[in-house]
Amino acid sequence: MFIIKEIYKPTSIEDAYNMLISQKNNTILGGTLFLRMGNKRINKGIDLSSLNLDYVKEYDEYIEIGAMTTLRELEINDLILKNFKSISESVKDIIGVQFRNIATIGASVFSKYGFSDVIVSLLSYDTYVKLFDGGIIKLEEFLKRKYKKDLLTQIYIKKDNTKSKYISMRNENSDYPILNVSVSKQGEQIKICIGARPKRAMIAKSASEFLSCNPKTIENIIKASQIASKELEFGSNIRASREYRIEVAKVLVKRAILEVEKC
Ligand SMILES: Cc1cc2nc3c(=O)[nH]c(=O)nc-3n(C[C@H](O)[C@H](O)[C@H](O)COP(=O)(O)OP(=O)(O)OC[C@H]3O[C@@H](n4cnc5c(N)ncnc54)[C@H](O)[C@@H]3O)c2cc1C
User: Fold this and answer.
1) What are the residues facing 110 on neighbouring strands?
2) Residue limits of the FAD-binding PCMH-type domain (predicted)?
3) Most buried of the four, 107, 126, 223, 233, by CB within 10 Å?
4) Within 6 Å (CB) of ligand 1, which residues are found?
């Protein structure tokens, strides 16, 4: 169990960031579900709950999500369901409703968990993260960056009519996924994203390009799923072997493409 010496309630985002970097063991608190699984000794636990970061707002060109918005809110929010339904679908299998009522999107994205269902789904859209120090960057770039202490405050998703489909495979309900896939389509452009490999989600660029430039016939869809299973690195852990993940990837990518083609 983790230990927090003191809870700090910042009065602004700047105050929260300054407290975060002022001492090594100062830590941002989201819903603390992941933190409590470890045994970290936290000096100041920085509680963001009074900074009004719990919201989903619509603008002409994008949707803005505050870092303290819960996964449950993303699952049931009308703006998300209307514009980015696969995000809602991607969180449904994470443990249970009570859990999702506490887990926050800021922590889920900032932590870059390899198994993350919501990251693979966000990646299939044109998504950006806002970091207090790092500024606004594309999610894809953020996922590639080395860890640096920062505070994620907002997530932006462009409303560009992208259709996306999310699928995952789990050994048991509520277990971590052994593989998760999101495929999106904007016009003729296809984006294939695969996570829980077990490394963090990545875009299968060659497979996406191949299918974007060729007719979406069943032969080409199968070929794209094979390219994706070869171009990305897969590994083994207690949930599944590398070889199994490669075979599952081919099936899930093919299914997700067929589903997104129907949208
Ligand atoms: C038992 C268990 C099973 C899970 N299963 C799944 C699953 O199947 N699929 C899935 O996708 N996810 C799963 N998760 C992850 C879960 O969905 C959340 O992503 C995770 O719990 C983090 O959310 P939290 O709000 O509780 O974060 P916390 O535990 O509060 O924080 C996690 C980390 O993020 C940092 N942090 C928090 N907020 C911010 C911020 N705004 N900016 C910068 N850093 C921040 C904290 O300092 C900490 O280091 C699981 C988690 C647990 C504990």
Assistant:
1) none
2) 1-162
3) 107
4) 27-35, 37, 67, 71, 94-95, 103-104, 106-108, 110-111, 113, 115-118, 151-152, 176-177
